[in-house]
């Protein structure tokens, strides 16, 4: 650099550091100028908006580069640009994808009947007219639950067990101790000799039986007060020791002669 009177052993150029840099050295071959980037921390700034929260870290140098991060803070019903100009929402409305891929507000789609499948013990299909509900045995106070009294809270508790199934609480069995029994005897007969009011002896032969008949009828003729006629399904049944005459009985009657 002839204009600066620089020669091989010395540089007389004036070198000034700018913003974000520093210069060291004298320009001598043994001590050359060294320009170092110190970074410009305030050279890059970030500004948050309603939809983005920005953060800047680092000094902008190789050893400590800038790190820019952003977090979306979009308010779904306020900041989405494809919701349609002037869109308003009614109570119960939700966000629905339109055929062109944009979003818009509108009432939720109605669940079609049969979209919810149920099995035993569950009623309904999930529609407004037929919501999902447990199939009960009836209404308290109405048949067949009309004989249980007015208190509808006395039924057995229903709970979900560890397997996720509905169960009824088991019936509690009340145990009564012997001491709580009222009017019980204090002693019990343990031998025949202790039994009171027992017979003194037992009949062991036919002759010992009181009021035993002396004779027994062995033929039908010996039977006293026996019937002579009877009726079965409108037919007369005769029992006699003589043959019937022409004037006795009609067709279909029965006659037994002994």
Q: In short, what is this structure?
A:
This protein is mainly beta. It contains no helices and 13 strands.
User: Which oligomerization state do the chains in this entry correspond to?
Assistant: single chain
**Helix content range:** under 10%
Summing up helix and strand content along with how strands pair, one would put the structural category as mainly beta
Number of helices: 0
User: How large is the share of residues in beta strands?
Assistant: 15-25%
Mean pLDDT level: 78
Topology:
Elements: E1 21-24, E2 34-37, E3 52-57, E4 67-72, E5 94-97, E6 103-106, E7 122-123, E8 133-134, E9 158-160, E10 166-168, E11 229-232, E12 235-240, E13 254-257
Parallel strand pairs: 12-13
Antiparallel strand pairs: 1-2, 3-4, 5-6, 7-8, 9-10, 11-12
Describe the model:
The mean pLDDT is 78. A hairpin with a 5-residue loop joins strand 9 and strand 10. The relative contact order is 0.04. The chain has strands at 21-24, 34-37, 52-57, 67-72, 94-97, 103-106, 122-123, 133-134, 158-160, 166-168, 229-232, 235-240, 254-257. Strands 11-12-13 form a three-stranded mixed β-sheet, with no helix packed on it. It has a two-stranded antiparallel sheet with strand order 1-2. It is mainly beta.
Q: Which properties best describe this structure?
A:
13 strands; elongated; mainly beta; about 260 residues; about 0% helix
């Amino acid at each position: 650099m002839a204009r600066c009177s620089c020669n091989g052993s010395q540089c007389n150029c004036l070198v000034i550091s700018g913003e974000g840099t520093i210069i060291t050295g004298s320009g001598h071959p043994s001590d050359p100028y060294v320009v170092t980037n110190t970074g410009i921390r305030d050279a890059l700034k970030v500004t948050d908006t309603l939809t983005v929260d920005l953060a800047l870290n680092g000094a902008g140098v190789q050893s400590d580069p800038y790190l820019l991060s952003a977090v979306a803070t979009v308010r779904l019903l306020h900041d989405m640009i494809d919701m349609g100009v002037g869109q308003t929402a009614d109570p119960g409305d939700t966000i629905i994808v339109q055929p062109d891929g944009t979003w818009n507000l509108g009432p939720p789609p109605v669940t079609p009947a049969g979209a919810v499948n149920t099995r035993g013990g569950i009623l309904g299909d999930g529609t407004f007219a037929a919501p999902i509900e447990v199939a009960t045995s009836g209404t308290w106070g109405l048949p067949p639950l009309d004989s249980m009294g007015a208190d509808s809270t006395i039924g057995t508790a229903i709970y979900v067990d560890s397997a996720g199934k509905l169960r009824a609480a088991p019936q509690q069995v009340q145990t009564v101790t012997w001491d709580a029994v009222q009017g019980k005897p204090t002693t019990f007969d343990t031998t025949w000799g202790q039994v009171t009011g027992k017979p003194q002896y037992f009949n062991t032969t036919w002759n010992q039986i009181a009021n035993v008949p002396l004779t027994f009828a062995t033929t039908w003729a010996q039977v006293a007060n026996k019937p002579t006629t009877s009726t079965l399904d409108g037919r007369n049944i005769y029992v006699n020791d003589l043959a019937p005459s022409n004037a006795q009985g009609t067709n279909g009657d029965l006659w037994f002669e002994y």
